[in-house]
Write a structure and sequence with these properties.
Elements: H1 8-14, H2 16-19, H3 21-25, H4 45-57, H5 66-81, H6 86-100, H7 104-109, H8 123-126
Helix pairs in contact: 4-5, 5-6
Length: about 130
Amino acid sequence: MARPRTPKAKAEITGYAEKQKTKFDSRNEPTIDESVGEPFEWLSEHAQKAWREIVSEVPWLNWSHRGHLAIAANIRGRMMKGDDVGVQAMNLLRQCYGQMGATPADASKAGAKPDGEKKDPADEFFD
């Protein structure tokens, strides 16, 4: 099975678009200037809180991610509430995170630093 396409916005954040200019310059992806926006009204209070947490953790989300984000926020909200979600829901949550580029492997590709990691003073000269 082929590897999924890297979204242009994610490639720009990770620096991959700079390395593969011809690949991403010619890509015609829908440009949506709108951010992911506020959570849907129909989501529960816990799901809306989960929505906001996920948005803060994954900065490249935009309007087109709202469907996957609603599913992920719903499941994560149920977890935050203390409900038993089951294995199938946890797997669906993992899949949603993967589709949105929010897995630990994708975060490392986006240049995210682990919690508590100190900033290297040399970074200002090499970035």
